[in-house]
């Protein structure tokens, strides 16, 4: 399973800087618009303190964090939906992603060119979101044209078309006002239909204010971040303030220097860690652990996954020959301090094929092939 979060925004706002910081992949960074012309894909490790704690209680040779993907996408400009800038091609890059990390410039620096000639993060958010709405409106109108005819039939296909038409007609007026499909009130079946439309504005979105180093210790005091946060709150979304350039420098430091630098800046944890965790959640991902062997390892699954399919992530044999899962919740292990104490407290639970995995499960899969 490879879900990807796409880094999206206007040109020259710090998308590649942020991407480099998170992946250390060395994507080209430059102080001119359109430095990124093909999307860069990078894997990131998900920082998780629970791994260290598990390894402390059940020691192994190696700790292996889980990973997921970020994609650095080229800058989108006003008019992109009509082919401006590098146009539709980049909107297609966004379509391939599972969630959007929307980066806006939230730092003053006369040396860095702003394509809008000013720093106004909320206006920038609205510019991008409007382009995405226009592109989606185009897709929805085309789709309505196709589905309308089919919806006249009374057979199974006709009924499905009717259901789809209902969703499209709910979404259309919202897009016409520049809104997002994800903000339309839909029931679960309708949400499934919406997913099949592959609209840009239906993707879960996280707003990232790229702030100045001076605001890093406490982004909540930064006026640009506050504006972005308010926008996100009003739209039921999350916002994070990250000093991308500084984070990029930190990412390249040896571990000792990192600690020292963060302490000097008054930062408890790199903002990147927060961003990676928030993106992971945005993608609907959760983690289970395996321990007790040579490795203490984190595994990623999609929220709602059942035990056999979760086992299949390790190896297809585990799913094919699934018998049961023996599970300890991380919180129980953490609290009780040893596997034996967990067993004595009756907290080790044995689950069958219908068990829905919980974030933090420490699992031993039993299988037979
Ligand atoms: N928080 C920050 N403070 C000051 N300068 C920054 C900050 N973040 C990034 N920069 C600088 O802004 C410039 C543009 O950054 P970057 O190349 O990452 O933008 P981009 O959004 O990827 O642009 P493009 O759309 O052209 O790909 C770089 O010179 C970078 O060092
Ligand atoms: Mg770039």
TrEMBL record:
**Magnesium: present as a keyword of the record?**
yes
Q: Which gene encodes it?
A: ychF
All copies of domain OBG-type G, residue ranges: 3-262
Q: Which Pfam families match?
A: MMR_HSR1 (PF01926), YchF-GTPase_C (PF06071)
GO MF: ATP binding; ATP hydrolysis activity; GTP binding; metal ion binding; ribosomal large subunit binding
What is the source species? Philodulcilactobacillus myokoensis
Query: Which residues are in the TGS domain?
Result: 284-367
Q: Which GO terms describe its cellular component?
A: cytoplasm
Q: Which cofactor does it need?
A: Mg(2+)
Residues that coordinate or bind ATP: 12-17
Indicate what this protein is called per its UniProt record: Ribosome-binding ATPase YchF
Keywords from the UniProt entry: ATP-binding, Magnesium, Metal-binding, Nucleotide-binding
NCBIfam families linked: redox-regulated ATPase YchF
Whether Nucleotide-binding counts among this entry's keywords is yes
Family note: Belongs to the TRAFAC class OBG-HflX-like GTPase superfamily. OBG GTPase family. YchF/OLA1 subfamily.
Q: Which function does this protein serve? A: ATPase that binds to both the 70S ribosome and the 50S ribosomal subunit in a nucleotide-independent manner.
